[in-house]
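Format notes (please read before filing issues)

Several people have asked whether sequences and structure tokens are stored in separate files. They are not. Every record keeps both together, in the order shown below: the sequence lines, then the token lines. Line labels are part of the format and must not be stripped during preprocessing.
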Amino acid sequence: MKSKLSTDLTMTPLESRFAMTRRALFGRTATGIGSLALSSVLHGRTPLHFAPKAKRIIYLFMQGGPAQLDLFDPKPGLTKRRGEDIPDSIRMGQRITTMTSGQKSLPVAPSPFKFAQHGQSGAWMSELLPHTARIADELCIIRSLNSEAINHDPAITFMQTGHQQPGRPSFGSWLSYGLGTENQDLPSFVVLLSRGSAVSPADPLYARLWGSGFLPSNHQGVSFRSSGDPVLYLSNPEGVTRDDRQRLLKTLGKLNTMQHAETLDPEINTRIAQYEMAYRMQTSVPDLTDLSGEPEDTFKRYGEDARRPGTFAANCLLARRLAERGCRFIQLYHRGWDQHYNLPTNLALQANDVDQPGAALVADLKQRGLLEDTLVVWGGEFGRTTYSQGKLTGTNFGRDHHGRCFTMWMAGGGVKPGITHGETDDYCYGITRDPVHVHDLNATIMRLFGIDHTKLTYRFQGRDFRLTDIHGNVVNALLA
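Then the structure lines:
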């Protein structure tokens, strides 16, 4: 028996009009009216719930879990407790990972790094972040982030999708779905990857972290490569001209349009749009990635690594250029923050990777008048433990995963600058004031974009889903 697709081109217009698959029947009856609203959303015409402060976001994700008490949350009182077991009254029998649960002791490991206050805000920062310290008054530092997840994959998935199990849309996909794009020649959601100086072979990153889940697939993140074509298949094959490709796309578009008229499968229109976007990107992406017009001062600001594609510095510079061109969600992943051992050396390497270019990005956006409506977010999936993983020596130790309290910072895009929000206990183990859950953070970011996080939903398999699931409260104290 021939498939329906194989007979499409031989059907008469009348036959084609009345031919309807079971899938099309349910599509027309269940989502016909909803598709009108969806069409509006896909084209970036969703009515906003509030006046937006931010138009775009640059999310600097430190994969692996930066150690908060070595970077932003000093605990000088721990020095005299070095080597002591963390008290039961602090831990309270809470779950820890299998990597340290079998240790005979959990010895306190004070930070070996010096801290100082910076700017008029008096923000505390480690000596590992001298450049970030210079923009202290631009930062909204949150010391009281918390997550239930204690292992990397569920924790990253939770931070990026609002759920610990795979399958939900990523944050960037939700914003693309809700707000559309400001630039028809570039994806609304771009992903840039870099390897840290302390990266280990066991630091995987999965494309589902920037996937669209059950949202239309044109909202998934587009990962740019650091060598060859920035996007796969951007260049035409040998012997194929740009005009040839345009003719091919027109013919393919006609075939897809015929199929959509029969099935009303929304993914067909998504596919058409993606083909057309790929064609336009043949011009827009080379212009984006060509840094020859950047002045020498740019590379002094971001660091010499900005000349090397694929580095964090180069990706920060590329993020600024994407922001200038109206890209909605720019996600940078920097691997290598999983310091289970050799923390004093490896953490310093990681901080050196990101300190200068991250601070330069914020300063550059401000100088260009973009910081006001560009939100910059810095942080990982969780923090690190106060106690040592493995043997604590005079010069070396590691830290295990810790989701009960960790630090992130935000800048621009309507957040309150020059503040430190939340407090942790004397052991940097738990939160004593103003906790901010992952869902609260995501709800607050959406609020900055003018979105009520409870109202941006998508019906899938009979349920209305949203980024924050059934949780989340906007943290008004973080808003300017």
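For reference, the curators noted about this record: The longest strand covers residues 56-63. Residues 343-367 form the longest helix (25 residues).
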